[in-house]
Amino acid sequence: MEYSDDIQLHKRFDLSGHRAFVTGSARGIGRAIAIGLAEYGAQVIVHGVKESEKLSSALESVRKLSPSSFAVTGDLGDAAAPAKIAEQIKAHCELPDIFIANASIQFRTPWNEIPLEESLAQMQVNFHSTLLLSQLFYPVMKAQKWGRIVTIGSVQEFRPHPQMAVYAASKSAQENFVRNVARQVAAEGITVNNIAPGVFATDRNDAALSNPVYAKQVTDCIPSHTYAEPADAAGTALLLCSEAGKYITGTNIVIDGGLRLPG
């Protein structure tokens, strides 16, 4: 077997000609990933639960880098939403060959007080929508012998928060799904990976981290003693979605400043 020294690394990150769908990309980590993929040439489909100023702002930022990008809406808490979203996408372009399952919801409730409705809602958004959307996009990826599925998990796969038992369990289920499916589709040119973020400075965490006492407790547990910014997840997502990461599959990449490490 002959090997080439012509690496041209910048070209291996080029996503021109690919279509990326990022759920929950109106804000936070999803928005940062959407912008990052657009920067490297992908047509990006931005997603929000409904039309909003944040969704419009995210799309505007993405379109500055990838003018053909567009937005779709749908509440992933509704089991019918994935199919409806797919129909919205098909009105603009072929179904995506890059799927970033970023959207999630979480509730802080003691485990023995979690109501069934709260549990089912988290599993629907955080796990079942990932499964349904992956099933919808898989035929396109299989047909072209190229595809990328990246789920956004959580450091809670390793360190579950005592008041977020179902959220942590849903993220662990998603990571298990990644390892299962990755083995089955690898020969078809499709990679499936998980990114597990730690504590990120996003609007979801604003309320909790605005308490200086609680914030210090959190940062004291992180070896880097700081939070991550949303953009800190974008580079990892780009790697996993590009040709540069084509030999990475079934993997869980943790972005947590060392939070999961034993102290």
Describe it for me?
This protein is of the alpha/beta class and 263 residues long. The protein is built from nine helices and seven strands. It has helices spanning 9-12, 28-39, 53-63, 81-90, 116-144, 165-185, 206-209, 212-221, 231-241, and strands at residues 19-22, 43-48, 70-73, 98-101, 147-152, 190-197, 252-255. A seven-stranded parallel sheet has the order 3-2-1-4-5-6-7, with helices on both faces. Helix 2 packs parallel to helix 3 (53-63), helix 2 crosses helix 9 and helix 4 (81-90) packs parallel to helix 5 (116-144). The longest helix is centred in the middle third of the chain and has 29 residues, at 116-144.
Compact summary:
The chain has helices spanning 9-12, 28-39, 53-63, 81-90, 116-144, 165-185, 206-209, 212-221, 231-241; strands at 19-22, 43-48, 70-73, 98-101, 147-152, 190-197, 252-255. With 263 residues, it is an alpha/beta fold.
How is the main sheet built? 7 strands, parallel
Low-confidence stretches: none
Strand content: 5-15%
- The succession of helices and strands, N to C, reads HEHEHEHEHEHEHHHE
How many strand elements?
7
* End-to-end Cα distance: 46 Å
Largest sheet: spatial strand order: 3-2-1-4-5-6-7
Specify the helix fraction band.
40-55%
**SSE class:** alpha/beta
Query: Globular, elongated, flat, extended or rod-shaped: what is the shape?
Result: globular
CA-atom Rg in angstroms: 18 Å
What's the multimeric state? single chain
Mean pLDDT: 94
- Give the helix tally: 9
